[in-house]
Design a protein that fits this description.
The chain is α/β, with parallel strands linked by helices. It has 9 helices and 11 strands. It has helices at 2-6, 29-41, 61-76, 92-101, 152-160, 175-183, 220-225, 252-263, 268-291; strands at residues 13-14, 20-23, 53-56, 107-109, 113-114, 119-120, 123-125, 143-148, 167-171, 189-192, 213-214. It has a 7-stranded mixed beta sheet, with helices on both faces. Helix 2 (29-41) crosses helix 3 (61-76). The longest helix is centred in the C-terminal third of the chain and has 24 residues, at 268-291. The radius of gyration is 29 Å and the shape is elongated. The termini are far apart.
Length: 292
């Protein structure tokens, strides 16, 4: 941004952030946990729109842990470390950063690590304190905190009390609740009853808001982002008489006409009604003239 500012060059930035995932009690937990597991542990959690943490009612925690655990075994086998489909952390620096986030946390599943290969097992944390270190930065790794909330209202407040995320995921059979959570929060994008998939559609703009980014791209939106929308007006050199309203010398009559034509904002309905009235008057005059 500093380099761009020197030349007044516009920028589009996708910056990431902590993307929340709300699981409503009225949803199919099997499908929800399966999709979350896929999105969270893809590339060992190193994707910018991976579900960063889960918000749910306390009664759902144990069920969520169990179902994710079962799905991890289905995806990666009994020995995740030996799975050809499970990746490693990109380097030792980030390996140590992620390990540091586990300090003092309640590990409900996973937690195994191997510094020599930068391996961190798929890990779930439960009863996570919102003030914990793991909740203060984007995880960008295979650690999934579960933060208990009383209900959707508390989930909305929790999300709005923090920086605006790059993505927001909502799982519920209740479409009204999904629309409400979309309306009452702000995020770069939203996927209902799935994760990450909004990113795959070129018809949808992809980008952040606030601390999660500036601008958007994908498909035609990329073309628009990197194009200047140039305003062009081409006029005729005829009908100069009407321009006398804008030329000096000024008069009260000109001001009155200007208010009528410019400041008085007619909507389409009013304009059509005015035109119909004028046409009616003209027609009446012509009929009367023909009669006489």
């Amino acid at each position: 941004m500093e380099a761009a500012a020197k030349h007044l060059t516009p920028v589009t930035l996708e910056l990431g952030g902590k993307s929340p995932c709300y699981i409503d009690k009225d949803c199919d937990l099997d499908i929800a946990c399966r999709r979350i597991t896929w999105g969270k542990y893809m590339n060992c959690g190193q994707t910018c729109i991976a579900p960063d943490y889960i918000l749910c009612e306390p009664s759902l925690q144990s069920q969520i842990v169990q179902k994710i655990k079962e799905t991890v075994k289905e995806f990666y086998g009994e020995n995740v470390k030996e799975s050809p489909d499970y990746e490693r952390i990109i380097n030792l620096h980030h390996f140590k950063r992620i390990i540091n986030l586990l300090e003092g946390q309640k590990i409900a599943y996973g937690g195994e690590t191997d510094e020599a290969t930068c391996y961190i097992a798929p890990t779930i944390l439960t009863d996570v304190d919102p003030e914990a270190k793991v909740m203060q930065e984007e995880i960008f790794g295979p650690i999934l905190p579960v933060v208990p909330v009383k209900n959707a209202d508390e989930a909305i407040k929790f999300i709005n009390d923090h920086e605006k995320p790059l993505a927001f995921y909502i799982f519920s059979h209740n479409n009204k609740l999904i629309r409400r959570m979309i309306d009452e929060t702000s995020s770069g994008g939203v996927t209902g009853n799935d994760v990450i998939m909004h990113f795959t559609l070129s018809s949808l703009p992809f980008g952040g808001v606030g601390s999660s980014g500036i601008g958007a791209y994908h498909g035609k939106h990329s073309f628009d982002t990197f194009s200047h929308q140039r305003s062009c007006l081409l006029k005729s050199l005829k009908r100069e008489g009407i321009n006398k309203l804008r030329y000096p010398p000024n008069s009260q009559s000109k001001v009155d006409w200007a208010k009528f034509l410019i400041l008085k904002r007619f909507n389409k309905g009013k304009l059509c009604l005015l035109m119909l009235t004028v046409l009616g008057i003209v027609a009446a005059v012509l009929v009367k003239a023909g009669y006489y």
